[in-house]
Amino acid sequence: MTVYKKHVKVLSEEGKVSYADITEDVKKAIAESQIENGICVVVTPHTTCSVFFEEYAHDINAAGDEFLQEDLNTVLEKIIPDHVSAETYVYPGEKHYEAVESWPNADEYLPNGDRTALWNGDAHLKATLIGSSTVFEVDNNKLAVGSTGYVYFADFDRTRARERKCSIIVMG
Amino acid sequence: MTVYKKHVKVLSEEGKVSYADITEDVKKAIAESQIENGICVVVTPHTTCSVFFEEYAHDINAAGDEFLQEDLNTVLEKIIPDHVSAETYVYPGEKHYEAVESWPNADEYLPNGDRTALWNGDAHLKATLIGSSTVFEVDNNKLAVGSTGYVYFADFDRTRARERKCSIIVMG
Amino acid sequence: MTVYKKHVKVLSEEGKVSYADITEDVKKAIAESQIENGICVVVTPHTTCSVFFEEYAHDINAAGDEFLQEDLNTVLEKIIPDHVSAETYVYPGEKHYEAVESWPNADEYLPNGDRTALWNGDAHLKATLIGSSTVFEVDNNKLAVGSTGYVYFADFDRTRARERKCSIIVMG
């Protein structure tokens, strides 16, 4: 049995939840692995991101999102409102602000010392609900999903644009 | 290390969320695999279905659902209402309707050309929340769960009855 | 390829959702496995518990919970209220009460025959939403997450304090 790993990069936008269709990356990793039968695990190492399985919806809204992504945003916001004030969530908290401010790379998290840059509690909670990993079947060296099945990477953090990592691990 | 795979079929009903107890299928696949230690991955290839781990509740309601399933339906419907009109969700959308209408097997998705047959946005969103895969431990060639732990396959799509597939992959 | 397994014990409290940071256990299991590349699966065998990936928040509230855990409780309770009366959920149900009362270890579930000890429908539903398993990447014999990424075990069952089990399976 072998393990084949691939790390892909995903660019996220500021001011919105960012969804990326990574289906082709996953299919390519499976092909490269030459593994006939087993599993393909897709994982995010970031706590404000998720990986999930969903249909590709052909219509795109003004924000650039597929219609099912807009609907998912609407549904999640009903219980997880945007983190727009210090009162929306108890997170981050004074000690957390201070801890981040003490990091050598504090500037990356708190540009210009702006504490509101840490108001991404909504992203943490959405990522916990949707989950950080999804497992797929590999069958005859193919991703075993129907023709309408796609793999998405979501970055729920709206505070800033970033380059995110996603791990694809094929085993069998 | 070996990979043992089994594909099981699950029948769903029209007009309701369909839950199937697939615990015996999972236990049988593990026994057949002869794998002593490792994992058992249960996966749906359908974007409107989920696999989850839950207790078996002995009471059944008038719809034929276990009580915890009725409670799960109630909870999910609070944020994901039934897709009963074109206004419930932005999905499917005009391009999506047209794409499906162009498929060779369009009749399967749109019987008699009825576009309301695609009103399953609720099912897509519920499946994303609950997830498409669950991993279990295999210990001494057994499914390592307590006596009250069961494996369920859910088809959240209420638009029509179907035969669904579920993949069980044992590795170790 | 090898399989390395470790079972850890987690103590939960009565009267609240109990969260345990098991990151060190997971990192230790990976180190002990000596597996360079592959996956680490963390699984709960209990239907009222979950495993999830989240940031460590440095502030702790009066209940002893990290701030992101308090926020998660708040969010989940919006759709899954505490099971405080026979009307909150249809679960458990008469047959379920009777089934549990017939078990040889009924006393463990129903101390003094008190049926309200089974009012943990909220815990079952929360565990289904958050999920029973999470998969991580193992890279160079390390847990492949960023410096802010932690692994948590949640026991959503508030009815009594218990010793819970969690399985860590490293494969590669």
From TrEMBL, chains A, B, C:
<comment type="similarity">
    <text>Belongs to the UPF0047 family.</text>
</comment>
<dbReference type="InterPro" id="IPR001602">
    <property type="entry name" value="UPF0047_YjbQ-like"/>
</dbReference>
<protein>
    <submittedName>
        <fullName>Thiamine phosphate synthase YjbQ (UPF0047 family)</fullName>
    </submittedName>
</protein>
<dbReference type="Pfam" id="PF01894">
    <property type="entry name" value="YjbQ"/>
</dbReference>
<dbReference type="InterPro" id="IPR035917">
    <property type="entry name" value="YjbQ-like_sf"/>
</dbReference>
